[in-house]
Amino acid sequence: MDPATFAAVLCAAMAHAGWNALAKRALDPVLGVTLIVVLAGAIALPLLPVVGLPSMQSLPFVAASVALHFGYNLVLAEAYRTGGLGLVYPIARGAAPAVVAIAGAALFGEALAPTGVFGVAMIVAGVAGMSVRRPSDLLHADRRAVVFALATAGFIAAYTLVDGQGSRLSGNPHGYAVLLFVIDGAVTCAFLLMRRGAAALRVAPRTLPPALFGAGMQLAGYWIVIWAMASAPIALVAALRETSVLFAALLAVVMLREPLAPFRLVAAAVILGGALLIRLG
């Protein structure tokens, strides 16, 4: 992976951790996640004439991705309702890169070099380790939170593969990313109105600034990922993006007052080692 793409995906990882932390801080996790998605679509809408539309060939992938992102947002909100950021986020993000690497090789012929394989494996192992304060915690974790987090991982792997291939067929990864956010925001807004009525859009003034900030981070973060997957191996981009757990762990400590145990520091070192292998490979 070239240095510019590597640095860009790391920035995307930071942005992803940031908007997830803001969503978790919301009093209502479902409203927090959906509001960020709706606002990201609103921010993306005026950008569509600037970046242009993707090719017709990629539109089925946009539609599939919108459906998968919709499911992802619902499951993620439920995961945050039942578990802390320090538990949910690493589990949700940890399983996805392994699935993407295996499926990417099987579906798209993207077999990784040995350094890439070891890098992905180290990141997966490190991300899993970040979800606990000590190994025995896995036996006592809230089962509902773990189930929702694993379901979230399944959606992540699916939409990553869809968007990776869609961006390559689009001829315009920027147009693909912006159109995806516009449609996803519109679908999510319609769902929010059906579920909670127009009152759901009348949010408290103090909620709007962090939601707008989170929406901007979500848009920028995944836009970068879609751009990167158009040229770099999907599995490597997906794995490197999961270094976001390092930033999420820091945010969980600073913003949410969740503990950071020594065991997680070891896991962080493993993640950094995996990222280095991906860069050198």
From TrEMBL:
<comment type="similarity">
    <text>Belongs to the drug/metabolite transporter (DMT) superfamily. Small multidrug resistance (SMR) (TC 2.A.7.1) family.</text>
</comment>
<dbReference type="GO" id="GO:0009245">
    <property type="term" value="P:lipid A biosynthetic process"/>
</dbReference>
<dbReference type="GO" id="GO:0009103">
    <property type="term" value="P:lipopolysaccharide biosynthetic process"/>
</dbReference>
<keyword id="KW-0444">Lipid biosynthesis</keyword>
<feature type="transmembrane region" description="Helical">
    <location>
        <begin position="58"/>
        <end position="75"/>
    </location>
</feature>
<keyword id="KW-0812">Transmembrane</keyword>
<feature type="transmembrane region" description="Helical">
    <location>
        <begin position="95"/>
        <end position="124"/>
    </location>
</feature>
<dbReference type="InterPro" id="IPR000620">
    <property type="entry name" value="EamA_dom"/>
</dbReference>
<dbReference type="InterPro" id="IPR000390">
    <property type="entry name" value="Small_drug/metabolite_transptr"/>
</dbReference>
<keyword id="KW-0813">Transport</keyword>
<dbReference type="GO" id="GO:0005886">
    <property type="term" value="C:plasma membrane"/>
</dbReference>
<feature type="domain" description="EamA">
    <location>
        <begin position="145"/>
        <end position="279"/>
    </location>
</feature>
<dbReference type="Pfam" id="PF00892">
    <property type="entry name" value="EamA"/>
</dbReference>
<feature type="transmembrane region" description="Helical">
    <location>
        <begin position="174"/>
        <end position="195"/>
    </location>
</feature>
<keyword id="KW-0997">Cell inner membrane</keyword>
<keyword id="KW-0443">Lipid metabolism</keyword>
<protein>
    <submittedName>
        <fullName>EamA family transporter</fullName>
    </submittedName>
</protein>
<keyword id="KW-0472">Membrane</keyword>
<keyword id="KW-0441">Lipid A biosynthesis</keyword>
<keyword id="KW-1133">Transmembrane helix</keyword>
<feature type="transmembrane region" description="Helical">
    <location>
        <begin position="263"/>
        <end position="280"/>
    </location>
</feature>
<keyword id="KW-1003">Cell membrane</keyword>
<feature type="transmembrane region" description="Helical">
    <location>
        <begin position="145"/>
        <end position="162"/>
    </location>
</feature>
<dbReference type="InterPro" id="IPR037185">
    <property type="entry name" value="EmrE-like"/>
</dbReference>
<dbReference type="GO" id="GO:0022857">
    <property type="term" value="F:transmembrane transporter activity"/>
</dbReference>
<feature type="transmembrane region" description="Helical">
    <location>
        <begin position="33"/>
        <end position="51"/>
    </location>
</feature>
<keyword id="KW-0448">Lipopolysaccharide biosynthesis</keyword>
